Amino acid sequence: MTNTIYTDSFSKNQTQIIKGVAILCIMLHNLFHWMNPMNSMENEFSFSSGNIHVFFSSLADSPQEFINIIFSYLGHYGVEIFIFLSGYGLAKSFMKAPVSWGNFIVHRLKKIYPLLLISFIYFFFTRISLYYTLPTRDELISMLYKLFFIHTFIPNEGMSLDGPWWFFGLIVQLYILFPLLFKIIEKHGFKAFLTISIISYAAIYLSIYVIDMPKDVFLMQNTIGHFPEFCLGIILAKNKKLEGNIWCFILALVAFILGNFYLAFYPLTFISITYIFIYIAILLINKELRLRIIKNALSVFGKYSMVLFATHGLFRWQFVYLAGNYHNVFVELGLAIAFLIEVLIIAIPAMKLHELMTKK
């Protein structure tokens, strides 16, 4: 039995399915982690060893709530898949048609700004239709920070307005640095990937053990905290085939487990879960599983993942409120399904609007 498995580069359809898995993890996380029994206990931007103990005790005390608990604690790692796919997809495109740094940035901003503006439109809509109020002065200032993509550098602004919007700052930072990172990795290969990753981890460990970070400014909301996953996408895109090694998979699994118990291993959880997901994806592709209905459903969510990411957080609170009234596992699951259906329906006009806004 070989220790290494291979597959061709991810096809457009496979990428769409993977995005579907990632966005479902994120949406269900952002819904469930406001509900009992976990209620916002995850190691996403900072670490607490108590969170993993709450996770296991919650499973032991409420095993019927396992879907809620698993997505509450682990669902946010869907973000790492998007970061990896961003590096992977950008590198594939860049290899086919290299462009100047200026043209690259302009092209990316022409896509991201309409998405951000659509998010603001939906924000106004929910404020007026659900809460019968207009945005406050502070909320308008927060919008301004987001228009300049500087919100992740400002205390208390990373998660303002709508929590998932912190990602806008990160992705634009990655766009700005991508051409440079691509050239360095193209020239020096794995050594460059290793060096960039070491720089990233050095910064993270300094922020944990040495430097007093400003309140509510998180390294894990900014580029330097996610260089390894992004650059892993770039370096794998350079290969004609994707490969997964069983020993690397086991090492990643061990690092991920330790990272949930010990602060010293916590920074490694993000790259390790990314590799775990890649290995499983390659394994499933090789198995050639049919599962047409599931694949089609995931593909639909993957197709709309961009606008789903931008808008879903605005529509979760009514479902969270209803779940709090009933405290019933079947009601929670029903509300989660209703939430997914609602945001998918809402995403359709948002996608159409984005296509109109980005048309040449």
SSE layout and pairing:
Blueprint: E1 4-8, H1 12-32, H2 50-61, H3 66-74, H4 78-96, H5 101-131, H6 137-147, H7 166-188, H8 190-209, H9 227-237, E2 241-245, H10 246-261, H11 269-287, H12 292-303, H13 305-311, H14 317-326, H15 329-357
Antiparallel strand pairs: 1-2
What does this entry look like structurally?
Helix content is 69%, strand content 3%. It is mainly α and 360 residues long. It has one domain (4-357). The longest helix is centred in the first third of the chain and has 31 residues, at 101-131. The model has no long low-confidence stretch (mean pLDDT 93).
Cα-to-Cα separation, first versus last residue: 52 Å
Enumerate the spans where pLDDT stays under 50 for 5 or more consecutive residues.
Answer: none
Give the helix level as a range of percent.
Answer: 55-70%
Shape: globular
Q: List the strand order in the largest sheet.
A: 1-2
Q: Structural class of the helix and strand makeup?
A: mainly alpha
Question: Averaged pLDDT, please?
Answer: 93
Q: In DSSP terms, counting alpha (H) and pi (I) runs of 4 or more, how many helices?
A: 15
Please write the string of helix (H) and strand (E) elements.
Answer: EHHHHHHHHHEHHHHHH
Rg over C-alpha atoms, rounded to the nearest angstrom: 20 Å
As for the number of domains, it is 1
Q: What is the tally of beta strands?
A: 2
Largest sheet entry: 2 strands, antiparallel
Which percent band covers the strand fraction?
A: under 5%
